[in-house]
Request: fold
Amino acid sequence: MSSEEFLKTILLSVAEVIIVVDMEGRITYASPQTLKIMGVKANELVGDKLWAIPTLRDPGRMEEFFIKLKLGKIYKKREIVEIQKGSEKAYLHIYATPLSDFSGFVFTFRDVTPLVEAYQKIEGLNEVLRLMNKILRHDLLNKLAIVRGYLEISLENLEKEKIEKALKTLDEAVEVIERMRELEKSIVSRETKVVKLREVVEKVAENVRKLGVEVEIQGDAMVLADDAIYSVIENIMTNSVKHGEATKISVGIEKEGEFCKLTIADNGKGLPMQFADKLFTEGFSYGKSAGTGLGLYIVKRVVERYGGSVRAYNKGGAVFEILLRTKN
Reply:
């Protein structure tokens, strides 16, 4: 076996992608593993610039890394880059080593997707803990203190009004706990499934109708979501009734290309559009019926996790438009 054949055998046995570039960043060699890890055949890369790899999500970042490497402006010759192989996103760890004759660099790409996703999940859990701590320390404890105060006064005077206020505040405390559970579910869960959207809307509408609110539903679509989609629709409808004082809610479901547009409109007093940029932010609440400030924040977090988007505006009453990915 010649030395060249021996070297090729070794390169084939390595799990990582190995790419050699010259000092201009032009690829002179790419190992066969590029097809499996990067989704591109090795012979299609030779002759192109390193940052021209077609599956790179951010070519500019790769080019910047190479330039700094070439100029000796970085101490750690490591980087994490993202690639897109069809519908799959992957994370690759890069390690760069200069060639012995300083005519270029050897880049080793290792798939670290499971590690990065695990780190992202930990970050999400940390966010859940931070929010839960905040809610427990402020909203929940405050509401329970109010309940205690009303009950103590009512015990002395047997006042019905005080007892009713205590029960109302207790209900709000329970709502806080439910929102915490929804928030945890929205961040921790990662997998989506095919969901029949109309069935979800109908189920939520059943409870809303019990409040004396008329709910009309038109259309249907199969979307990619999970059980947290119930919280999304419930939060919006609850917002219409509790804060908008709506007596009628209209729901429309229609296909728009690869997405489904879910429109939830009410005949209430509308949204405080002077705070439009804050509607979906954590902790924002408004008016006499202000709640925890988590309802619409949860809506945004969940919808974005599905790969969709949400917007709100006024047209008579409040209107929420949600775009959800559909089953191909």
